[in-house]
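User: My instructor asked us to take a sequence, write out its structure as tokens, and then describe one feature of it. I'm not sure where to start. Here is the sequence I was given:
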Amino acid sequence: MVGLIDLTGALAPIINKALDFIPDPVAKAQAQAAATTEMLNFVSAQNTAQMAVDQAEANNKNVFVAGWRPFIGWVCGAALAYVYVISPFLTWGLNLLRPGLPPLPAIDTASLGVLTFNLLGMGAMRTVEKMNGVAAKTAQ
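Assistant: Let's start with the prediction itself. The structure tokens for your sequence are:
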């Protein structure tokens, strides 16, 4: 739910700026508490909905429903392991054994990061689709 955390972080300065227009300190504190409560309730509701979607996908026997996320997750996890663990140690070891070998292939970590974070955010989009009733009937 990275997107939701970013959203609340982006809204906080706007809400604080709006609260600056309330002159009464007691009313300002009450409005700030209400805004904070609303944001927390929103994030909590989205997390609960996402957990329900995740559970439904995990229980589905169709590989095209339940299998895509683990597959992409494993691909991203393997690529991250290669970039940050395997490649540095392998490069170090190969340079000890045979100095002057060409470097190992590199993975574009910027694209990998975008893919990984988008994968994590796709669940939120799917939740909204299911809540609005526009989810494909064959994918449920």
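For the description part of your assignment, you could build on this observation: DSSP finds five helices and no strands in the chain. Try explaining in your own words what that tells you about the chain.
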